[in-house]
Design a protein that fits this description.
With 176 residues, this protein is mainly beta. It is built from two helices and nine strands.
Amino acid sequence: MALSLALPIVNQPVVNGATSKSFFIYMSGPTGVPVTGKAFDSTGLVASYAGTKLARVAITLADLAAITTAWASGGFKEVDATNMPGWYRIDVPNAALALAADEVVIEIIDQDGTGDAAGTLIIPIPTATVGTITSTLTAADLGNPLTGTLAQNVEAIGVALPGFDVTNPDTTRTDN
């Protein structure tokens, strides 16, 4: 297969375990010309995904009635051959976004004999998210029924939450 000149598309990060996600992928031939007229059942069309340090997994492509159709695992549809040549919608299988990987690569190759083509999509999957952590501690969680004096209860909480200065509400972690 000749190499395509199209660069991989790096998508917005997706939270690990996200479901029912559709993406756009651009397919071009060896000279960079957009590839049009492909459908889920086109001869020679092969779709795959792989996560960082994980094996390739085949994607079974499925027909979408329209570009606006609800998500379907492996759904594949050309956007508009005239006004957006080379652009296709791919509905990434949920399993691809639930990998223990930093990113997943989606690759669609066309080896139908009329001029090989390819499209690549890279989806970052952050291992950590920024947000608020909420925790409800009970007396049992602390290993102390919190029935002592205020000073004893504060000490018990400090033992249960190492790195936090529980005596000073204006501070956060002390060990980072």
